[in-house]
Amino acid sequence: MKFSFVENIQPYENSWEYGLYEYDDEIQLGDAESHICTVRIIMIKPHEVYVQKGLTDKMFYVAVEDFENGKYSKVELRKSIMDFVKDEIIQFENEDQIVVLFS
Question: What is the pLDDT of residue 97?
């Protein structure tokens, strides 16, 4: 599944928010028909004590909000969101670092 997206600027470090829409040449903000969901991505770094012990992997938690679009299953959307995160945020090494949660 391919998305069009709008990034909502966040005042916090290691935090991103996107409005995901069905792919189209034009995004109309507030259009309930094309809006799929809102995703908030939070990067969590390990504490310095654990970095000294060799844990260097960051974790990315993705909260999916406003998912009421009946066109897509959660399984399909989860896979597409993980691909989206890989394309947009390049600070991770493997998929085990991404956790997608539906609210």
Answer: 81
Domain ranges of the chain: 3-102
The DSSP annotation for 11-77 comes to SSTTEEEEEEEE--S---TT-TTTEEEEEEEEEEPPPHHHHHTT----EEEEEEES---TTS-HHHH
* Residue 101 pLDDT greater than 70, yes or no: yes
Whether residue 91 has pLDDT greater than 80: no
Rg over alpha carbons for the chain, rounded to the nearest Å, is 15
DSSP 3: E
Q: Say what the pLDDT of residue 90 is.
A: 67
**Would you say 80 and 1 are in contact if contact means Cβ atoms under 8 Å apart?**
yes
Residue 64: the pLDDT is 92
- Quote the CA–CA distance of 86 and 8 in Å, as a whole number: 18
Strand pairing class (35-44; 98-102): unpaired
